[in-house]
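Handout, section B. The chain below has 137 residues.
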Amino acid sequence: MTDHGTKTAPGTVLIVDDDSDYLAQMEVQFAARGYRVLTADGRAAAEEILAATRPDLAILDLMMDNADDGFMLSWSLKKRYPDVPVVLVTAVTSETGYTFEGRTGASSWIRADRILSKPVRFEQILAAVEGLAGHGG
């Protein structure tokens, strides 16, 4: 049976975060919107997934086991799959006051397509993801 009124599935999203509650929330929210969701609780687990699977987009926490894990994972992902959009979600601004906004050249070394500061609502993440993936409507 074919449903002609629905859009095609949005694709596969890789979500990487060391906060298991946040990871579970994100997985439920994206799955409810039709995404195939892959999750990893850290950089090593994410690297294993990326060795076997090319996601359509990725949402990465910045600070996990090591303070630069999100940067390194984003760099590695973009090296392997340059066209996969990456959203980096970080609490570094609320914890340190450092912001990435307005920094010229920051995206060249971060290699993320968007950087969102925690706390962030799911709707903000979804809007960034859909904008990057071309699923905005």
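Note. Residues 20-32 form the longest helix (13 residues). Compare this with the example in section A.
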